[in-house]
């Protein structure tokens, strides 16, 4: 097997020779200045580079060393650069770490100590490469950017893949921020209507009085302010998919009109007299407990059956084994690129905090926290404190630890039981009312 390449950027030829001789486990490539270092980087793509900051034409300063560090990391950001700090240059070594170097060592060189740092750098590089490979593999095709590695979400994706080609209505149930809109879009893209439009409307965000016009459109002069004829969202989605988010917030009066559209597949704009046929697929979502709403008359049962030919339950993020860490890594890389390129990953305490947190706001909360943390991070790694999870992680106290465990177990049981609350309760060994209480308490309805 060929030996891994260690690039030594060093203008002292005698020292470079000594390193080549000492590190026989590696193929040591030596570069004496910045240009040679970059050539060697392109040619050998070394995982690890040792860098003397004092390079010609500035052998007594550090400017050329820092420029080399910048160029190396710009060309190959995953490279582990270990910086040499001469006597009294500790401050520049620390600055180099801030600029993205992986570690530093003090001159004069202790061959064994540097050897350990180098070996560890190769090891970490290999782990990170493996992580990236796994993360890349975890991105499934077809569901527009949805990230997961958990069996719980794999099951959801499979269900949606199966129903995408059939022109049935789909109801997505899940707490806020679990990715319902992303899944609805994925469903559209995997369906024969993919060439048509995906039109989304959040029924909770629009005042009751305006919702009807938004959905059905209006003719010019239908009401004060209706200065021109306007198509509603339903018409806009003709040939494509209409995503009705927060369907549980549609008032009863409008539920009747929606039902009529779903039965007859024609709409009438407000103030219009013409029935306009519209062919669109309906996907809807809610975080509310629609079963309970139907039971106490807040949601029409006949409409429910039209909208929910297929019901898919989206587990809370805390109930997806391993997904929070995976998604956090993705967002760190994503936001680091534009907001703070020095940041390369999550510190160990941050990873533990991400795994332990209950994520009441699900993926949206995770994305927001990571984004803010990337901006706030002072070094290469995002810490638990940057995520604002430092004191609030699951081991804050027994109650939060229990809640996290409850959420995970309930989410999994619901997925396993295909959303059937009685079956999930049996799996969990608790009564149905107790499970309902827990679903309510943790806002896990659906
Ligand atoms: N599995 C995932 N992988 C990557 N990003 C995700 C995932 N799930 C959700 N997101 C992102 O999280 C954010 C929230 O997702 P989305 O808007 O789909 O949630 P939602 O369930 O519709 O929320 P709400 O009910 O509050 O409208 C979006 O920015 C979305 O891109």
UniProtKB/TrEMBL annotation:
Keyword field contains Phosphoprotein: yes
Record keywords, A-Z: Activator, ATP-binding, DNA-binding, Nucleotide-binding, Phosphoprotein, Transcription, Transcription regulation, Two-component regulatory system
GO BP annotations, alphabetical order: phosphorelay signal transduction system; regulation of DNA-templated transcription
GO MF assignments: ATP binding; sequence-specific DNA binding
TM spans (from-to): none
4-aspartylphosphate modification, residue list: 52
Domain Response regulatory: 5-122
Domain of life: Bacteria
Domain Sigma-54 factor interaction: 146-375
PANTHER family: ALGINATE BIOSYNTHESIS TRANSCRIPTIONAL REGULATORY PROTEIN ALGB, TRANSCRIPTIONAL REGULATORY PROTEIN
Protein name as it appears in the record: Two-component system NtrC family response regulator
């Amino acid at each position: 097997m060929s030996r891994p390449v260690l690039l030594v950027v060093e203008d002292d030829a005698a020292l470079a020779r000594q390193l080549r001789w000492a590190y026989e486990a590696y193929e040591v490539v030596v570069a004496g200045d910045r240009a040679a270092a970059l050539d060697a980087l392109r040619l050998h793509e070394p995982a690890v580079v040792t860098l003397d900051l004092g390079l010609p034409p500035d052998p007594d300063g550090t400017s050329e060393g820092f420029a080399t560090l910048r160029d190396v990391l710009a060309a190959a950001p995953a490279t582990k650069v270990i910086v040499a700090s001469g006597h009294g240059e500790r401050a520049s070594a620390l600055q180099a770490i801030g600029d993205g170097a992986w570690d530093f060592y003090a001159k004069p060189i202790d061959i064994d100590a540097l050897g350990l740092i180098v070996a560890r750098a190769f090891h970490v590089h290999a782990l990170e490469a493996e992580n990236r490979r796994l993360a890349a593999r975890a991105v499934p095709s077809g569901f527009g950017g949805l990230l997961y590695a958990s069996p719980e979400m794999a099951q959801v994706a499979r269900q949606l893949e199966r129903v995408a080609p059939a022109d049935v209505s789909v109801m997505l149930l899940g707490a806020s921020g679990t990715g319902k809109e992303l899944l609805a879009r994925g469903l559209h893209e995997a369906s024969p209507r993919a060439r048509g439009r995906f039109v989304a409307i959040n029924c909770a965000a629009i005042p009751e009085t305006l919702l009807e016009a938004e959905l059905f459109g209006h003719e010019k002069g239908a009401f004060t302010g209706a200065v021109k004829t306007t198509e509603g969202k339903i018409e806009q989605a003709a040939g494509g998919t209409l995503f009705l988010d927060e369907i549980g917030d549609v008032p009863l009066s409008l539920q009747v009109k929606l039902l009529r559209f779903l039965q007859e597949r024609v709409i009438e704009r407000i103030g219009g007299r013409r029935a306009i046929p519209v062919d669109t697929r309906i996907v809807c979502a809610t975080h509310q407990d629609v079963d309970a709403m139907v039971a106490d008359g807040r949601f029409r049962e006949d409409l429910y059956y039209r909208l929910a030919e297929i019901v898919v339950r989206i587990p809370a993020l805390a109930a997806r084994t391993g997904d929070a860490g995976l998604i956090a890594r993705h967002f760190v890389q994503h936001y680091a690129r534009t907001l703070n390129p020095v940041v390369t990953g999550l510190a160990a305490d941050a990873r533990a905090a991400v795994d332990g947190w209950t994520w009441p706001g699900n993926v949206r909360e995770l994305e927001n926290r990571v984004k803010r943390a990337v901006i706030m991070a002072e070094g290469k790694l995002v810490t638990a404190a940057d995520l604002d999870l430092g004191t609030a992680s699951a081991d804050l106290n027994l109650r939060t630890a229990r809640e996290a465990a409850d959420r995970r177990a309930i989410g999994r049981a619901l997925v396993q039981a295909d959303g059937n609350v009685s079956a999930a309760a049996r799996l969990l060994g608790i009564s149905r009312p107790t499970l309902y209480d827990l679903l309510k308490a943790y806002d896990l309805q659906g």
